Amino acid sequence: MSEVLLEIENLRMHFPMYKGALIRKEVNRVRAVDGLNFKIMKGETLGLVGESGCGKSTTGRAIIQLYRPTEGSVKLRGKDLTKLSHSELHPLRRDLQMIFQDPYSSLNPRMTVGDIIAEPIKVHQLESGEAIYRRVQELMEIVGLDPRFVRRYPHEFSGGQRQRIGIARALASKPSFIVCDEPISALDVSIQAQVINLLEDLQNEFGLTYLFIAHDLAAVRQISTRIAVMYLGKMVELTSGEELYRRPMHPYTQALISAVPIPDPEVERDRERIVLTGDVPSPLKPPSGCVFHTRCPFAFEKCKKDVPEFKEAEEGHFVACHLVDDPERRKTAPNVTSPEAAKAAVHAMDKAFGPSLPESSK
Ligand SMILES: Nc1ncnc2c1ncn2[C@@H]1O[C@H](COP(=O)(O)OP(=O)(O)OP(=O)(O)O)[C@@H](O)[C@H]1O
Ligand code: SF4
Ligand SMILES: [Mg+2]
């Protein structure tokens, strides 16, 4: 059993909405993250997937304490970060870093690349004097940037190069955990694989642990050890990448997988699809019971009333759905998980994004 690096319990991040200028009164709250329970193992890449606005970035920020959570705990090697004051947190921040989605807006345009990368080294007093400059050059080399460009400004670099600057900045404080918040979605497809490969190489070299956020399942596939699926502030499923693609248990995950186009017309013809209707409800007023019940094709009475527990349905496979306790009803779920369909979905993703599963498992 590998070592737990982070343990997240009942994590909630609500953003209050106020009314009134003089007497501010809370009128509502955005339930961006609403009760997450999961662990991140040392050295793994946990992929975090879900539609826009489901709370992925907020989860990442609340874990590394860029946001102080409304409720719950985040334990780093057993120490609860949410209980620490700002000054107690400061030395631990060195260990927890983030790579941002947009390499254009996340770098200060008035700072040189050298100053951007040097900032965490100075803030955490890791080097002094000339050694800072040498460390910046070393970091530029590690991420594949020419150290001669150290005095240039972000606008003088391409999108892919800017993301490398963001990666160098995240690495500068020698962290053990990095939230990679959609680090490739703003980049050209041709550059995306390079950045993924760089992140994988860095993980192997420095023993890093990643939370890797993406919009869709295909994008996290190559890099993830395990994958978590989020819907409206809740985690609905979490298991290994291979298990998730072959045997998705939650109807939402099944819908995401059934939406992957398969190039084989025969398999495509026989496969059942789950087409989700309606929009994602607002996190200001999430539905009662299971938050997915307004769009779930298998919803039944219990789903409107009772919140399904996120629990280990099978070894290492966590899911939040009442169908798990109702095998008869579960049989009515469509055939997106038949061996042929699972194999075809994996094949389609291989074609689009390159192989990631070991040959023997295909
Ligand atoms: N600082 C904030 N104040 C108020 N609401 C916020 C704040 N940050 C996020 N939200 C809201 O919380 C919800 C979750 O936002 P979040 O950015 O975490 O989603 P996401 O899954 O990362 O989306 P995307 O894929 O578009 O990046 C959204 O409804 C968003 O509008
Ligand atoms: S609990 Fe009910 S509504 Fe929610 S995903 Fe399962 S079947 Fe669908
Ligand atoms: Mg986001």
From TrEMBL:
Listed GO biological process terms: peptide transport; transmembrane transport
Gene Ontology MF annotations: ATP binding; ATP hydrolysis activity
Family annotation (InterPro entries): AAA+_ATPase, ABC_transp_ATP-bind, ABC_transporter-like_ATP-bd, ABC_transporter-like_CS, Oligopep_ABC_C, P-loop_NTPase
Pfam hit, one: oligo_HPY
Which keywords does this Swiss-Prot/TrEMBL entry list?
A: ATP-binding, Nucleotide-binding, Transport
| Domain ABC transporter residues, every copy | 6-257
Q: Which domain of life is it from?
A: Bacteria
Similarity comment text for this entry: Belongs to the ABC transporter superfamily.
Q: What protein is this chain from?
A: ATP-binding cassette domain-containing protein
User: Which organism is this entry from?
Assistant: Microvenator marinus
